[in-house]
Amino acid sequence: MASPMSRAWSTWVLGPWRLFNIVVHIVRGLWLARIGYVDRPVGERDETVRCWSQQLLKALGVTLVVRGHPRPGAKLVVSNHVSWLDIVAINSVVPSRFVSKAEVAAWPVVGYMVTAAGALYLQRERRRDAMRVLGLMSDALREGYTVAVFPEGTTGDGHQLLHFHANMLQSAIDAKEPVQPLALRYSDEAHDISPAAAYVGDTTLWQSLWGVITARQLTVQVTVMPLQAVDHADRRALAELLSTQIADCLDRN
Asked: Which strands sit side by side in the sheet containing 75-79, from one edge to the other?
């Protein structure tokens, strides 16, 4: 357990220093987006996203541990959902186009970067918009992109999975591209499952960010699980299978 002195160091010295580095890194990301990132070949874009995301994790003070290797080419990445940090962790391993709520596009700075990275925006207040986004996901998969979704639909505390919704999994079935399940687990100096990473309840984004950058030895473990074929798959059965596989992986680790 950290001493009071070491906790004070994390809060009043290390935290502000990391925050400064994060701001500098985000400015660099804006610059990269403005110099023609979207016009580069997919492979170059993916490598840019991977490197930038890994460097952001470092600026945040988060150690990345990867188990397994993602399949090259088109696939639907499916993962448990704990935090906004999940997107950075996943992009550090397998750069992806994420499905995001439409409000994110209007966020200062972040919205511009997420849009440049190829986000697929979903207008949740429109019940039929999911079908439109589902078509965009299938098209992106057919074009060779990796697309990522969080079937839980919201964040959990990292201790157990929430219900997996099956709708967005239909995109992989329609495009006849496989699913790449990932299991994300956050730990720190004092916890096997770190509360610092969880972005749940009434926690604000600022509170969550500060909790991450002042955590001691925060680590995200990304386990890349075997590909799941979708030939003749039923989306609800596929959702149950993926949920079970990811839950079992998290229990083992």
From this structure: 63-67, 219-224, 179-187, 75-79, 146-149, 97-101, 120-122
- The DSSP secondary-structure symbol of 228 reads B
Report field, pTM of the whole predicted structure over 0.85: yes
The CATH number given to whatever domain includes residue 39 is: 3.40.1130
Q: Taking the CB of residue 60, how many other CB atoms lie within 10 A of it?
A: 21
CA-to-CA distance for 174 and 115, rounded, in angstroms?
24
Number of domains in the chain: 1
Taking the alpha carbons at both ends of the chain, their separation in whole angstroms is 22
pLDDT of 134 above 60: yes
CA nearest to 70, candidates 147, 174, 156, 166: 147
Domain hosting residue 166, numbered range: 4-252
pLDDT tens, residue by residue, 61-120: 999 999 999 999 999 999 999 999 999 999 999 999 998 888 878 877 777 777 887 889
